[in-house]
Amino acid sequence: MLKLKRPLVFFDLETTGTNISKDRIVEICIVKLFPNQKKTVSTFLVNPQVEIPKEVIEIHGITNEKVKNAPSFNEIGKEIKSLIENCDLAGFNSNKFDVPLLAEEFLRSGINFDFSNTKFVDVQNIFHKMEKRNLSAAYEFYCNKKLENAHSAEADTLATYQILLKQVKMYDNLQSDIDFLSKFSNRNQNNVDLAGFLRKNSENEIYISFGKYKNKTLEEIYNLNAGYFSWILRSEFPLFTKDIITDFLNEKKLKKKFES
Q1: S-S: 10 plus which of 31, 32, 82, 148, CB 3.0-4.6 Å?
Q2: pLDDT tens profile 168-209
Q3: What is the pTM of this model?
Q4: Which backbone phi and psi does 237 adopt, to 5 degrees?
């Protein structure tokens, strides 16, 4: 049994692809586990309002026809927010993909969602630290069952929930409280944005983790080549990342204004 101080939401996304900044959700399942161990399941088909590529349909089986009359994320975003607000979040590869992509959908829809107090439990990271395999293999390993309907959001989400329960039971060094599991499953605890493009160093300064200015702080880059930030803001980076860059630039402008 998981020790919960507040609800823990297991969730999984099926999408139009794997690009966080431009791909869209086509299905989302939310399994909400309450501190009293009561569980609710909510699954939504979503019209991404863009074409779902054929090669992606072959993976999850969700066709353009199937989502044609489904609501857009704009229409259900507030309901999704109400389901996961004041909860911690868990998923399989969720820290790297599902959480950042969900954050993008909220931002695109103009929905303000504060992730700053959310604990993230990535069941894949726990699995990789312990056994190093994928979701189907994890389900077979921990639950001794074949994962039917893999790449269906509901099947994947329920499997992820069952795997975490088995992991906590199997490993003596895994504590069942969410604070511990969040820290244990988070590989990049110094991330500033959800996708890991921006991180904090030991001096609490934000630096870039990619490209020609990799490991340089925003302050250093600003002094070297302030135009580099314009390229980031024009390129296909997540909105969450761009918002942090914009806040930094606005702070610099404000500081310059008061100094002049």
Answers
A1: 31
A2: 999 999 999 999 999 999 877 789 999 999 999 999 999 999
A3: 0.76
A4: -100, 155
